[in-house]
Amino acid sequence: MIQVTKTFLPPQEEYQAILQRAWNTNWITNRGVLVKELEGALKNYLGISKILATANGTLPLQIAIKALGLTGEIITTPFSYVATTSSIVWEGCSPVFVDIHPDYLTIDETKIEAAITPKTTAILATHVFGNPCHVEAIQAIADAYGLKVIYDGAHAFGVTYKGQSIFNYGDLSTCSFHATKLFHTGEGGALFTNSEALYNTLFYHHNFGHQGQESFQGLGINAKMNELQAAMGLAVLPYIEGILETRCNIVRAYNVAFKDMILKPLKLRVDTQWNYSYYPVIFETEAQLLNVKLALNAKHIYPRRYFYPSLNNLPYVTKQNTPISESISNRILCLPLFHGHLDDGMTKIIEIVKAKLC
Ligand SMILES: *Cc1c(COP(=O)(O)O)cnc(C)c1O
């Protein structure tokens, strides 16, 4: 069986050796040495100035909205994972969907201004499949209208844009370290900002609002990463270059195999150093997609319809029209992609896709 992704598991003895340090101190949460060490290692690896490790990649979105004091309407993308929209609604704000660019799949920055109203307080956009949003245009709009900018960077681990970490753009960015993501801690995530003041607010929000043991700076929740999660991250991180390399090889093989076909691959923004996080292909019709999916499933190969459905169709949002996102959602399929070699499985996937489309 081949799934759309496969979690990279480090050698168990290496994970255990790191866990042993938590056993030695009898300290498994509340920002112990391992969480701090992981934060330091990630700062180095990613080239960012501030990071706050969290329990998953969804709480950071909610905390971001809270910390920036957002109310009213938040302009967002309908083409993302449900957490992007649900976080907005969970925080009592209204998502206003702006359609996506048909090739880049990120929010169409040229359509943002038309969606701004007196109630708009922020833009929350996703670097879809690790492809950067048009961060310059978005920042210019935000500056002109006094809006905050949050990036859901759940897919964007290790991506650089114009030579620096994609997490350096916007007021703040988030990432997910879920087991299905490129870099993982089982469950986990992070917040990134370059503002000292905002970092302090994020910090107390993620730890019940504590300011020391006996006083509270303000409202908080519990979004702390624990030591067991951090140990996994520390065990995975040394392998990240190898993971990227093997993923890159598979992406190249897919690209070559599908070069002259009707399938449309993801178009990366220029000046992007990508992370090979997903391999989406866009079909001409949904019928073609279903045909290929069925043929793959018959051989126990399970690609995923990311992202489907388009989020403007969620039952708890006001119905809004974003035809490009809906059309792409109906026709996009992510093919299996993970660390490992281009074995028989990948070759079979290529064969089946070709056979079904020719
Ligand atoms: C995975 C994902 C999330 C949520 O991350 P979790 O760690 O699973 O909570 C948020 N946004 C996007 C775009 C994602 O793909």
Automatic annotation (TrEMBL):
Q: Name the domain of life this protein comes from.
A: Bacteria
Q: Which InterPro entries match?
A: DegT/StrS_aminotransferase, PyrdxlP-dep_Trfase, PyrdxlP-dep_Trfase_major
Read off the Pfam families from this record.
DegT_DnrJ_EryC1 (PF01041)
What molecular function terms (GO) are annotated for this protein? Answer: transaminase activity
Q: Does the keyword 4Fe-4S apply?
A: no
Signal sequence annotation: none
Which keywords are on file for this protein? Aminotransferase, Pyridoxal phosphate, Transferase
Instruction: Please state which protein family the record places this protein in.
Output: Belongs to the DegT/DnrJ/EryC1 family.
Entries under PANTHER family matching the protein: PROTEIN RV3402C, TRANSAMINASE
Protein name, as recorded:
DegT/DnrJ/EryC1/StrS family aminotransferase
Q: Give the organism, scientific name.
A: Snuella lapsa
